[in-house]
Amino acid sequence: MRLKSLLAAVALGVGLAGTGLAAAEATTATPKPATSPAAPGHLVPSRPGAKPSRPGRLPMAVPPGKAIPKVPNYTG
Amino acid sequence: MRHVKVHTAALLAAGLLAGLAGLAGCGSSSDGKSEDGPPGADHRAAAAGPQQPGQTQRRGSAEIATVRGRRIAVHKHEGDSAIWKTLSSPNEMGATRVFLVDAQDGDWLKVLLPIRPNGSTGWVKASDVTLSSTAHRVEIDPKAFKFTVFDGDKVLRTGKVATGEGGTPTPAGRFYFTELVKPPNPNGDYGAYAFGLSGFSPTLKTFAGGPGQLAVHGTNNASALGGKASHGCVRVSNDDITWMAKNLAIGTPVVVKE
After folding, report:
1. Which among B47, B58, B248 has CB closest to A53?
2. Is B250 on the interface with A (CB under 8 A)?
3. Interface residue B221 vs chain A (CB under 8 A)
4. The pTM is what?
5. Which residue on chain B is closest to A51 by alpha carbon?
6. pLDDT digits (tens, 9 = 90+) for B112-139
């Protein structure tokens, strides 16, 4: 009788703890990427259908590799 | 029997406590930091009003807007349905049109325009441009006849300049590189390369068939560097302009000090 009650109590306790941990894990799980992910470093739209309104980290501008061959007409 | 009941009650209590502890973990992230706001808080902050570029980038960087199509509509005020100006791309020198971004508000960008008067700004739609950034900037000190190229706070290169003579001064202001030109004769007046600037001479409305546009360029007269010698352009040595051509992007900010 004692043994059965002890085992039942332990099983119930372990079950409750497991349920709590599972619920906690479910709510803190890593979010999955959206179906159409924004470019890295860019904020996603704040409302459905909107375009990204604010880049978070922009790609660095590429240094010019090619100059335009031309006679300049600057003020000199 | 009484013992059994006590033990059972104690174990049930322990189990319940463990379960509650597990549930309590829902409110905290795994690294122990609590969530400060609802998801998307950053988005709302970004859309709250005009922001100076660079707030969400690394310190000292500037945003460059490159025109996507063959022309771009510029509006005088944010959200205007009326088009104020239409600018072509490529620009008059044959380079893809770029702007230096002054501020951003949602889908609109306030940009520095390469038109007279110097310092003119307008608004373009963010969807009409591609944004990039640079941490480089050039400062011209006309009093010291010196240029300095920065990467953020770090000085990359300094050198001598020649600026405009009395009747054709180099105006102070905030500009940016609009194009890079390679003159056919590297031993000519413009030296090895010339970066067009978004600013114009305050006194010359036209020059050599052009609109009096300023530039940073090389020279075939290095001995004039360190003084006032030009018609408004900023002259640097051919070594310096060649280095700039290899390291600085179109759209890089250029500040000419007072």
Report:
1. B47
2. yes
3. no
4. 0.69
5. B107
6. 999 999 999 999 999 999 999 999 999 9
Residues 2-61 of A with CB under 8 A from B: 2, 5-6, 8-10, 12-24, 27-28, 43-46, 51, 53-61
Question: What pLDDT is attached to residue B209?
Answer: 94
- Asked if A13 lies within 8 A of B16 by C-beta distance, the reply is yes
This complex has an ipTM of 0.76
The residue to which tokens 């054709």 are assigned: B168
Residue A56 has a pLDDT of 62
Which of 70-129 (B) contact A at CB < 8 A?
A: 93-95, 104, 106-107, 126-127
Per-residue burial over A38-59, b if 16 or more Cβ lie within 10 Å, else e, is eeeebbbbbeeeeebbbbbebe
Q: Give residues 42 to 71 of B whose Cβ lies within 8 Å of A.
A: 42-44, 46-47, 51, 56-58, 61, 63-64
B34-62 mean pLDDT:
44
- B182-189 contacts at long range (C-beta below 8 A, 24 or more positions apart): B182/A67, B182/A68, B182/A69, B182/A70, B182/B245, B183/A70, B183/A71, B183/A72, B184/A69, B184/A70, B184/A71, B186/B218, B186/B238, B187/B220, B188/B220, B189/A76, B189/B219, B189/B220
